[in-house]
Specification:
459 residues, alpha+beta, Coagulation Factor XIII, Chain A, domain 1, Immunoglobulin-like, 3 domains, eight-stranded antiparallel β-sheet, five-stranded mixed β-sheet, 6 helices, elongated, binds zinc ion
């Protein structure tokens, strides 16, 4: 109440106060108007980044783009294609204001836009792709600030033509196969597609002619679809079917007895590399033979993922002299105290000779791995190009290094018992793009002639 009385008492200055109050109100209104204007009329253009270089346009293209507008938000995204007089809007998207007091569209757009360029009636040849992003600012005659990106493109809707010159007819799991084909234009990506997996092809040296090695893993069933495929830079796909029949290989079985003596002798080596192992010697053994085996297989697949594009090898692969022990794809049952404790598949051939026997490169190639790797112990992997690799395991010493080009029959190390090996022997494997295949074929000149040389001669 006291305040009220004092106000009354100041009545002679009432007019001045009213003026001040109006002025403050006006200032507040101007500030509010400026604030609204700031919200509605901002002058910052949206940003637009294409995360892929676009040069060719096929039937459809995938356009990963990233647009952002931190002030008023994104109002629209438009993609048009023009060619001379002709033009068509390929895509148009408009966004809503999220609320009246928050006049903004999405602050960022990160999406893969798939557009059908063929629908636009654009002919083969040069064209221009225009991408426009607008924001919600009232600037630009109420149309918003715009960022426009123009890209010169070449419209190409013609698929590369793939012609099969040779395609393996009989597919066996754990066996290498080959296809030779021509492609009518320089492909961006090509090879043999076995269901969803692409085995890349490589130039044979003859014009427009390529070879692709492929394989089914030892335990694979019949594939649904095998094709030689080629994609051009516009994403057009050409394909030629490879008609195959599937031939199952009879299973071989083997048992391995694990003794306490073997465990006591072997586990300290693994304890050094895998200190995380716990439990009894048998539990540690099972950890190595399962978890470590899986991680080793992944490493080998990664190592084999890159390969030389030319055929570095010639003629049959050399087999180390010595007695053959375990074979490829043997189904092994591990017995401990007469009980089956584990099952694994043996993906190579074991050859025993004298202790610390000289190990030589089976063919010419580039060493891509030369170090310790779990169950394989000291191992050397040689890339022979075009997806073909050989592997030498359980070595007592490695006498080469990654990156070295080795000739056929050149010494690379000595046999031993490193990794999961009881006695001194060489475990030898062949791989096609990281898939283990039987080495027996690669030791056989006749198989090389019939499977690979004749396929190359057919071109
Ligand atoms: Zn072996």
């Amino acid at each position: 109440m006291a305040t009220h009385i004092r106000l009354r008492g100041s009545s002679p200055r009432k007019g001045g106060f009213f003026k001040m109050f109006t002025a403050a109100l006006a200032a507040a209104a101007i500030l509010a108007a400026l604030f609204v204007a700031y919200l509605l009329f901002e002058f910052e253009r949206p940003t637009l980044v294409l995360e892929k270089e676009i040069k060719y346009l096929g039937g459809t293209i995938e356009l990963p783009l990233h647009a952002a507008d931190s002030k008023s938000g994104i109002r629209s995204l438009t993609i048009t294609l023009t060619q001379g007089e002709n033009g068509a809007v390929l895509m148009e998207r408009h966004f809503q204001r999220s609320a009246w007091f928050k006049p903004a569209g999405p602050p960022t757009l990160k999406e893969k836009v798939v557009i059908d360029a063929q629908k636009a009636g654009i002919r083969q040849g040069e064209a221009e792709l225009t991408i426009t992003v607008r924001d919600f600012s009232l600037n630009g005659l109420f149309k918003g600030n715009a960022t426009v990106q123009r890209i010169a493109v070449i419209m190409d809707t013609v698929a590369p033509r793939v012609t099969l010159l040779h395609g393996q007819r009989v597919l066996q799991p754990g066996s290498a196969a080959v296809a030779v084909y021509t492609v009518s234009e320089t492909p961006q990506r090509h090879g043999v597609m076995v269901d969803q997996r692409l085995f890349p092809g490589f130039p044979t040296g003859k014009k427009d002619t390529y070879i692709a090695y492929f394989a089914l893993p030892w335990n694979a069933g019949p594939p649904e679809r095998v094709r030689a495929v080629a994609f051009d830079e516009a994403g057009n796909e050409g394909a030629a079917a490879i008609v195959t029949s599937y031939k199952k290989v009879p299973e071989k079985h083997d048992t391995i007895t694990i003794s306490d003596q073997f465990l006591a002798q072997k586990m300290p080596e693994f304890e050094q590399y895998y200190p995380e192992m716990r439990g009894t010697l048998l539990e540690k053994y099972l950890y190595i033979n399962n978890q470590v085996r899986i991680s080793n297989a992944q490493t080998i697949a990664e190592v084999c993922a890159t390969t030389d594009s030319s055929q570095l090898w010639s003629d049959r692969f050399l087999r180390m002299p010595g007695a053959g022990r375990a074979g490829f794809a043997d189904q092994r049952t591990y017995l401990y105290n007469g009980q089956a404790v584990d099952n694994q598949t043996h993906l190579g051939v074991d050859i025993a000779s004298t202790a610390r026997a000289e190990i030589r490169a089976a063919n010419r190639g580039k060493v891509v791995f030369a170090q310790y790797l779990g169950i394989y112990g000291n191992v050397v992997i040689i890339d022979h190009g075009q997806g073909v690799a050989s592997l030498y395991s359980h070595l007592s010493s490695i006498e080469t290094s990654a990156g070295t080009l080795v000739e056929k029959d050149q010494p690379i190390g000595r046999s031993g018992t490193s990794g999961m090996a009881g006695g001194d022997h060489l475990h030898f494997s062949m791989l096609i793009h990281g898939i283990f295949v039987t080495p027996i074929e690669w030791w056989d000149q006749n198989w090389i002639n019939v499977t690979i040389k004749s396929a190359l001669n057919a071109s």
